[in-house]
Amino acid sequence: MDSELLVVVLILAFAVVLIAGGLLLSRRAGGVGAAPSPTAPSPTERAPIAEAEAEAEAQLETITATEAQVVEPAVEAPAARPRLRDRLGKTRAAFAGALGGLSGRGKVDAETWEELEEALILADVGVPTATRILEDVKARAAREKADADGVLPLLKAELLDLLTPGERSLTFTTDEPNVWMFVGVNGVGKTTTIAKLARQQVTEGRTVVLAAADTFRAAAAEQLGHWAEAVGADLVRGQEGADPGSVVFDAMSAATGRGADLVLVDTAGRLHTKVNLMEELKKLRRIVDRTPGALKEVLLVVDASTGQNGLTQARQFTEAVEVTGVVLTKLDGTAKGGIVLAIQAELGIPVKVIGVGEGADDLVAFDPAEFVDALFA
Ligand SMILES: Nc1nc2c(ncn2[C@@H]2O[C@H](COP(=O)(O)OP(=O)(O)O)[C@@H](O)[C@H]2O)c(=O)[nH]1
Ligand SMILES: [Mg+2]
């Protein structure tokens, strides 16, 4: 009997455990999925939350849009033309510093002209050109009975007159071969200028061949090769030490074969002797001239920061090859921007293009009015 009772008790206990366990399980399942959340909104609370969610979403959209605005122009749009006023900051500061005492002084006297001369010399205009400018401004001032305040506008007008003559566009004729050759001493920025110009020309839809005729260092052709790839131009190069003439010859054939619009010839800036360099440039020129009329520009690249030295180099190159224009580079980093005036006044060669930075878009056509404005702005 006792054992029967024990069995019944055990069965009951087992049943109780089973039922209790089942209940517990069902409660747990319901607790996760179905129990109302303590933070769940009542219907009246839902409206502000929906608003907050909408606001958060709008914010997200704003962030995405802002990010897109930052990223897209860097990839797609061409960079804005560099502002000369900003890039010529050092030359402008030197100029403004030296001319600062003029205004409000009233009478024009010997000191006025000394200060003017100092400003021009500081900007590396050079003595002959500075003297010429001063004489002209003095004559204008006397004619117009100008006071000290009136001298600055006269100087500005004089600089503009001095810079105005000269054809500054780079010659290009459609439907015929066009060759622009770049000459200048080492390090002035020939290769970089070619890259920047190639980029502009490719952007305008022209097909461009770069001729790596600086065969003295393998690195020179490699540098040009990287640029060619980056800007979408073709490259013709030779082995290190190869005859630069053969590179130019090959580039001319390649350009004819591919119907390219423009060949940009990069040349070496240093040979064993100056005579060698000049003779080689003449030879390269003769090779280009085998295609009559193809050579449209011989551009002398001058580093503005070398100031008057640049002028000496320019004289040497112009004696050897017929230079059609000057590219003045590195105007961004120097107070010697007045060299533009010296080149124009003493050599009579128009500055056609100026380099105002190391970036691919930091090259602009030289505009005298913009330049003079930037000096006085
Ligand atoms: N700040 C500045 N640097 C320049 C400019 N043009 C060229 N450079 C730099 O000058 C150095 C020499 O340039 P490169 O093209 O190799 O000279 P190359 O020897 O005449 O071919 C490089 O570091 C260029 O980035 C310019 O307009 N502004
Ligand atoms: Mg180079």
Share of residues in helices: 55-70%
CATH 4th-level superfamily of the domain at 178-323: P-loop containing nucleotide triphosphate hydrolases
Number of E-state strands: 8
Could you say which overall geometry the principal axes of the C-alpha atoms support? flat
Low-confidence stretches: 22-49, 56-77
The CATH topology annotation of the domain at 178-323 reads as Rossmann fold
Can you describe this structure in just a few lines?
The chain is of the alpha/beta class and 377 residues long. Helix content is 58%, strand content 11%.
Topology:
Layout: H1 2-33, H2 43-75, H3 84-87, H4 89-99, H5 110-122, H6 127-144, H7 148-163, E1 178-183, H8 190-203, E2 208-213, H9 218-231, E3 234-236, H10 244-258, E4 262-267, H11 274-289, E5 295-303, H12 308-320, E6 325-329, H13 339-347, E7 351-355, E8 363-365, H14 368-376
Parallel strand pairs: 1-4, 1-5, 2-3, 2-4, 5-6, 6-7
Antiparallel strand pairs: 7-8
The structure holds guanosine-5'-diphosphate and magnesium ion (MG).
Residues 184, 186-192, 269, 301, 329-330, 332-333, 355-358, 362 line the site of guanosine-5'-diphosphate (GDP).
